[in-house]
Amino acid sequence: MKHYLLPILLLLSVGVYAQGNRELSIDFNYLFSGSTSVELGTSAHTHTDGAQITFDAANYYVSNIRLVPISGADVVYDTVLIINATNAGLPYQLGQLPVGAYQSIKFDIGLDYDRNHSDPSTYNAVHPMSFQSPSMHWSWSSGYIFVRIEGMIDTSATLTGATVPYEYHIGTDNLLKEVSVPIALEVDANTQSISANIDLLLGTLIGGLSLKDAADISTHTMDNMPLANTLMTNMQSAFVGEVNKVQLTGISDITASQKMSIYPNPLVSSATLEVKNSGYFNTIEVVDVTGKTIFKQALNGNSVKLFRSQFPAAGVYMVKVSGEGSIVRKLVVY
After folding, report:
1. Which of 225, 246, 253, 313 is deepest in the core (most CB within 10 A)?
2. What's the N-to-C CA distance of the chain in angstroms?
């Protein structure tokens, strides 16, 4: 059975905006890389060093979600979510989103100082900061575990040998990290609702580690701070997202039949961009992290090949297909 992430959401305070603003929801899921799904405890995935890895838990806190407009102040939703691996993923209503153009979704991995040093026993059982199983809390002084990822690794030459456990338990105030996910979103008077879908790429999270090295398979933060720092830095660039915008006219940026995928992602020599229901889209545009357009071309049919030679340097790029709506995906280029 495929397992997805189930967010438990607390809306601590959400402002009420003027008439004409639209409801925004968000959900968090996870993949290994690109479109490769993860089945907890069963599916094995090949790491860049040749080891195979499974994920038994992939739990983390998200807080302080905000939408960043092209101009003006951020729209802030004072939220706390705990993302747990369960049977389903649920969208949660964040509140109203004002009309305007938005360029990114930002959020924090972890909890601010006051929340981090609060007592989980003071919260009711359904609260995301109450006691969890497995535990997401150390003590009042150490605070909460911001990220808890565990599983098994097979490093044998034949990949059929005995597996060894790994565990990453990361927290403390100085490891609170901000994530920024680029999007392209226009909210206008005809927009009915917006949903944001955020994926954590677990393969990117463990990228650069040597799973055959004992120093890279265990951290409880203070006992292996270099590894904890590496993982949290990796996590900042391990999220990709897309936005779904339903218009009152009936046209939506993305529906279940209008999806875009890029594989393999990261791109090494080439990758395939594929869309469903391609009649909605006619243009591909690739921009870098500064917003500079790298190239733009017509989209003819359901797929197009992207080549390493089209990108001036390794890094993170945003690929947008547009027409009657738009989809944006993050592409990592090596």
Report:
1. 253
2. 33
DSSP codes of every residue in 87-124:
S----EEEEEE-SEEEEEEEEEES--HHHHTS-GGGS-
Strand partners, 30: 200
How high does pLDDT run on average in the chain? 84
Mark whether 90 and 9 lie in a shared domain.
yes
Where is the domain boundary, 234, 253, 272? Answer: 253
Same domain, 290 and 169: no
Tell me the pLDDT tens digit for each residue of 156-180. Answer: 866 676 689 999 999 999 999 999 9
Number of domains forming the structure of the chain: 2
Q: Give the whole-angstrom CA distance, residue 81 versus residue 55.
A: 20
Range of the domain at 310: 255-334
Window from 33-47, 86-100, 156-170, 213-227 with minimum mean pLDDT: 86-100
Query: What confidence category does residue 3 fall into, taking pLDDT thresholds of 50, 70 and 90?
Result: very low
Tokens of 100: 């305007």
Q: Are 282 and 298 in contact (CB under 8 A)?
A: yes
216 with 308, same domain: the answer is no
| Same-domain status, 188 and 208 | yes
- pTM of the entire predicted model: 0.71
- End-of-domain residue from the set 227, 253, 279: 253
Give the C-alpha separation, 296 to 241, whole Å: 21
Ramachandran region of residue 143, left (φ > 0), alpha (ψ -120 to 50) or beta? left
Of the listed ranges 143-147, 204-208, 250-254, the least confidently predicted one is 250-254
Yes or no: say if 50 and 210 are a contact pair by the CB < 8 Å rule: no
Torsion sign (Cα): 303, 307, 313, 314: positive
